[in-house]
Amino acid sequence: MRAATLGRAAALLGAVCAVGLAGCGSSDDGGASTAAGDGGGSASKTRELVVTSYGGDFERAQKRALFDRFERETGVRVKLVTMYSADALAKLTAARGSSGIDVVQFSGGQEVQAADDGLLARIDPADLTNVDDVHEKALHDGYAPAFAFDTTGIIHRSDVEPAPTGWASLSDPQYEGRVAIPDINTTFAVQTLLKLASMNGGGPDDVAPGFDALGKVVANSHSVFRDAPTMVQLLSNDEADMAIYDSGYAFLMHQQGIPVDFTIPEEGSFLTKLTMNVVEGSENEEMARKLIDMALDPEVQQSFADDAGYGPTNVTARVTGPAARFVASPEQLDQLESLDEAFVARNRPAWTAEWNRVIAK
Amino acid sequence: MQPLEPSAPATAAAAAREGARRPPWKLLWPVGGLYGVQFVVPLAFLVVMSFWIPVAGGSPHAGFTLDNYRDVLGDGFTLGIFRRTLTMGVATSLLCLALGFPVAYGIVRAPRRLRTPLLLLVLMPFLVSAVIRSFGWMVLLADNGVATRLLRSLGLVDRGLMYTMTGLLIAMTHVFLPIMILVLYGVLERVDLRLEEAAANLGASRLQTFLFVVFPLALPGVLAGTLLVLTLSMSSFVTPAMIAGPRLRVVATEIYDQAVNLINWPLAAAMAIVLMALILALSALFTRVLMRAAPGARR
C-alpha cells in the first residue's frame, strides 16, 4: 500500500518538475558546440569555420570559387552544414547563441529578420577591404553586404511556342495546366503575390487584388512546388512548360542539358540578395569576416558567377562565360525591385494563411 | 468460537505471491529516466509553448494566451485540415487491413521453409527510408509515370495521380503495409490450425471458416494493427509532403510550415497537442472496443 502511494507521489512530483523545467523556458537548447571552441576568438587560434550551405551545384561552385581558396590562404578548414535558409533561421532562433554555426547563408531575405532579432553579428564596413566596390543594392546597413544577386523570372522550356513574356503569361489560357508556381515558403512566391497585386490595382498595403489574380493563376497551373528540385523535375520531365524561379537555377538546368530559357518578365521583376552573415555569439568572428571579405573579391566574384549563374555584387567583376545570358546586366539591375524584407516578415503569417486558402483544392 | 487464523506457511506463501506481482521498479529506472528526459520533458515544453504569444516577423514571447488553441479549433480551414488528416489515416489503415490480412494469413499457412523468406520480403521496404520510398512513388505517379500510364490504359485516370488524395493513399498504403502484415502475422500465427480443421469437419465452407473462426480470433491483432497504422499515418510527414503537395495539406506538414517557415512555435505546438489529443482519444476508443471484442471476454 505505502509503496504504491510513494510510487504515485514520485510520478506526480516528476511530472510537476518536468513542467517546471519546461516553464523556466530557457530557449537555449544548446546545439552542437563550436568546433574550434577555445574562447579566445583570436584569428590565429581558429582551426575550423562552420558555414551553412545549400548543397548541390551551388555548393560545388562556392567551394571551387571561395572555400578552397580560403582554406589555402588561411589554413582554416571550412566545415559545410547543409541547411536551407528558412531552416537555418529557425535553428538560429531556437539555439540563440549556441547553434555552433559561424557563418550563415540566406537566399530569401532572412538576414533582415535575423539582424532585427539580434542573431547576426554587426560588421563595420571599414573592416571589409572590398566594400567600396560593392553595388549599393547589395548593402545591408551595419551588417555584411550580399555576395551575389539573384534575378526572379520565368524559367521556360525552349520548345514552348510562343514563349511567355511576363507575369500575365501565367494566367494565359494557352498555357493551361502547364504552369508551375512556387509555394509561399519561398521568397519568389511573395514576389509573385506583390507583383500580381500591383498589376491589378493594389500594392504592398492592399494585396487583395493580388490574391484574386493568384486564384486565376492557380486555376491555370499544373501544380505548386515547395522546392527547386521538384521544379527541375517538372520542367525536365515535360510535365510543365514554365515555372517562376531564378536565374541561378535556369543556368544550372541549362548546364545540365535541360532545354530551358530564362525570361525577365516585361512588367518588371525582382532582385534577391544572396548573403553570408556572421552569427552572433560565434567564437571565430574575425575569420568569418575574412571569409565574407574574400567572397567580395573581384576574382572570386567572377569565378562564382561564371560557375553558378548568380550575378556579382562587386561592380568591377565581369561575367564572361555562358552564365552571362542568365545573369542580370548592370542596366537590368537598376530596373529590378528589391523587397522591403522587414515589411514582408511582418505580413508573412497573414499572407501565408490567405495563400493557403487560395491554393487549397 | 475462535476466528480461523491462516497458518504461518500459508501467509508466507501469500506474501511471496504478492511480492512476485509487484513491478521491478529498480529495473525500470534507467529506461524510465531516459524516457523522462527525452520524451516527457520535451512534451511538457511543447505544452508550455502552446500558450506562448507568437510575434509576426520575430521569435515568440513567453506568456499565456489561449489564442493559439482558438486559432486551431475555431478556424474552419484548419479544422478541414484535421478532417482530411483523419480521413487519410482511416482510409490508409482500412486499405492496409484489406491488403495485409490475406498476405499475413498466406504467410502463416505457407510451408514452414517459405515463412522466413516471405517475412524478409515483407520487411525489405524497411531497409529503405520513407523518403526514398516516397520519392519512388513521385516517379511512378507522375503524369507520364509507370503507374499513371497503367491506370490510364485501364481507363481509370486521365491525369497524373501526383498531388491527389488517391495518389497519396496509394503511397501511404505501400509505406505502412509491412507494419500491418507483421502485426497480423503475430496474431494469426497463434490461431490453432486444428480449429479451422474442426470447423471444416463440421461442414463450414472456407468463407464461413474465415468469417466465424479465423477473423474473430484475429480481432485483437486487427484492432492493434489498425490502431498502429492509424496513429502512424495521421502523424506522417514525409509522404504527404512529397506526394500530396502544398495544395493538399495535412496536420504534420502544417505544423512544419508554422514552426520552421513562420517561426510560429506556439501555433505549431497547439496543433501538435490537438493532434495528440485526437490520436489518444481514438486509441482509447479502440482499446475499449478491443476489450469487449476479444474472444473469451466477459459480456
How many structural domains in the coordinates of chain A? 2
Topology, number of strands of chain A: 11
Please give the count of helices of chain A.
Answer: 12
| Residue fraction in strands of chain B | under 5%
Q: What is the CATH class of chain B?
A: Mainly Alpha
CA gyration radius of chain B, whole angstroms:
25 Å
Tally of extended strands of chain B? 0
Q: What radius of gyration of chain A results from the CA coordinates?
A: 23 Å
What level of helicity do the residues of chain A show?
A: 40-55%
**From N to C, what is the helix and strand string of chain A?**
HEHEHEHEEHHEHEHEEHHEHEH
* Whole-number total of structural domains of chain B: 1
Oligomerization category of the chains in this entry: heterodimer
Give me the CATH superfamily of the largest domain in chain A: Periplasmic binding protein-like II
CATH topology of chain B: MetI-like fold
